[in-house]
Specification:
- By secondary structure, the chain is mostly helical.
- It has a single domain, classed as ABC transporter involved in vitamin B12 uptake, BtuC (Orthogonal Bundle), CATH 1.10.3470.
- Helix content is 75%, strand content 1%.
- The chain is built from 15 helices and 2 strands.
- The protein has helices at 2-15, 22-31, 33-47, 55-71, 77-102, 106-125, 134-137, 150-168, 170-180, 182-187, 193-218, 229-239, 251-270, 275-300, 303-312, and strands at residues 130-131, 220-221.
- The protein has a two-stranded antiparallel ribbon with strand order 1-2.
- Helix 4 packs parallel to helix 6, helix 5 (77-102) packs antiparallel against helix 11 (193-218) and helix 12 (229-239) crosses helix 14.
Length: 315
């Protein structure tokens, strides 16, 4: 993933003289925090065999509530940010409870939440943009001479915490086991429902945090914010190698997927590509990533691969 990202940087650097500059790279870093934290949560959802299509609309709703709290109610930024994250947490928990407790596919439940949250975002702001200004922009302002915002460092901290939880905790082992074979987990005496609900709640919480980052970068809250963001998050996670079948994934690799998506968008804009062209290229990248994922699954089940694993000592 690192090699692919560096290759994209070199490619667009060769195509555009102004791409490989400190200003471009810092702008790139300051644009990705919202998508990065949402992709971290989406990685965990896909690992347990679920999906969350509502993150874009929940981000719009959380950002709308943040804007109203600061612009209309006079709340400080920390209080409004906590409220934004709380709204995301409630939405994610509802997704988890309905999907897990009632046995309804998460695809359907979160599709419904997508519409509910977007409608509530319009109702909250009366379909108007709430201009906040400097009160919320502090998170997206570069720190000192680094050129990188506090939001970026917070997003990196979330990525690191997510990877540690996934790789080195019992909870992370539960998630991988649930995505691999939920029935086996149940027969082993582990109730898979609480971890699954917790993951949907976590995605909602991270989406609320992403709304804070998104609103901070724009200096305003727009009820249309986050439209299509769920597709970008899923694309970044799949590009990072997380399986759509569940049971396998990496939060750090999803972060590199975010970097690849953001670099593609920025690079194509630098070379003058139109919006339709950018969408076509991004779509092709997603399809290629899914095809490679399916190919890896077939290879993992082939007799040659099993023979290789047996004699290499990997059980």
């Amino acid at each position: 993933m690192l090699v692919i990202w560096i290759g994209l940087l070199l490619l667009f650097g060769a195509l555009s003289q102004n791409f490989l500059t400190g200003r471009t790279l810092s702008t790139l870093a300051n644009r990705i925090p919202a998508l990065a934290v949402i992709a971290a949560g989406m990685t965990l959802v896909l690992i347990i065999g679920g999906i969350d299509l509502s993150v874009g609309s929940v981000l719009g709703l959380s950002g709308a509530v943040l804007g109203v709290a600061m612009a209309d109610w006079g709340w400080p930024v920390w209080g409004a940010a906590a409220l934004s994250m709380g709204i995301g947490l409630v939405a994610g928990t509802l997704n988890g409870l309905v999907s897990v407790r009632l046995g309804i596919p998460s695809f359907i439940v979160t599709l419904g939440m997508l519409e509910i949250a977007r409608g509530l975002a319009y109702l909250t702001t009366n379909s108007q943009t709430k201009y906040i200004g400097a009160g919320v922009e502090v998170l997206s302002q570069p720190i000192g001479g680094l050129g990188v915002s506090a939001a970026f460092f917070l997003a990196v901290a979330v990525i690191a915490a997510g990877q540690v939880a996934l790789s080195w905790t019992v909870f992370g082992r539960y998630l991988i086991a649930i995505g691999t074979n939920e029935q086996a987990v149940r027969l082993a005496g582990i109730n898979p429902r609480p971890p699954k609900i917790a993951i949907f709640s976590l995605v909602g919480l991270l989406t609320g945090l992403g709304a804070v980052f998104y609103t901070s970068r724009l200096g305003s809250s727009d009820p249309n914010a986050g439209v299509g963001l769920e597709l970008s998050a899923i694309a970044a996670v799949v590009i990072g190698g997380t399986s759509l079948m569940g049971g396998r994934g990496s939060v750090v690799k999803s972060f590199f997927g975010v970097l690849i998506i953001a670099t593609l968008e920025a690079g194509l804009a630098q070379v003058g590509a139109s919006e339709p062209t950018k969408r076509v290229v991004t779509g092709v990248v997603i399809v290629v990533a899914v095809v490679l994922d399916a190919w890896r699954h077939r290879l993992a089940g082939s007799p040659f691969h099993l023979f290789k694993r047996l004699f290499s000592g990997n059980q």
